[in-house]
Design goal:
Layout (H helix, E strand, L loop, with lengths): L2 H12 L11 H18 L2 E8 L6 E2 L7 E8 L12 E4 L2 E4 L7 E8 L15 H19 L4 H4 L3 H23 L15
Antiparallel strand pairs: 1-6, 2-5, 3-6, 4-5
Helix pairs in contact: 1-2, 1-3, 2-3, 3-5
Length: 196
Amino acid sequence: MNLTEMRARVREDLQDTDSQNYRWTDDEVDGAITRVVIEYSLHAPIEQQDDIATTDGDTELDISSLSGLIEIESVEFPIGYKPKYFQRTEYWAGHLYMQDEGNGNDARVKWLKKHTLDAQSITIPAEHEEIIVLGATGYLAMSASAYTVDRASIAGRHATINFKAWGKERLDRYDKKLKAVSRTSRVIQRIFYSGD
């Protein structure tokens, strides 16, 4: 699935499929999808691992290649010790610093990454795509309920309350599904440092 296909699924649920008379523009639908993908990423990010070269005598690691970074989970340096040797780190303003100085060898960085949903691809598992649809339709319906408050004669006198109730029900389901897939709802093994 890609963004175009996701947009079509969202429109189907919203019953907004008449391209000559869309209620929501493509930009509005895409904006809602983007918002939900970010929220989903914060609950169920992609788990990544990269080996990054250290600089001799420097504590900073160049993490500019870590696109879509949400959070650094751990830095193992030096690599290959048993038990593993994890660095105490500081991440600030896009810069990552270890406690120990580098020596030119690699450090192993485990990190969390944002999901993508664009014109070419999607990183969200197929079984979670419905979460994106629920969230996007919920947000769009709630925005429509606010928009139609002063336009009841155009949208029909029950449009506002119907959009609001339906949107709220969708967002409630979305919130429950997000919590169910969230990393914080699982027991995650935390790292104990080998250093002093």
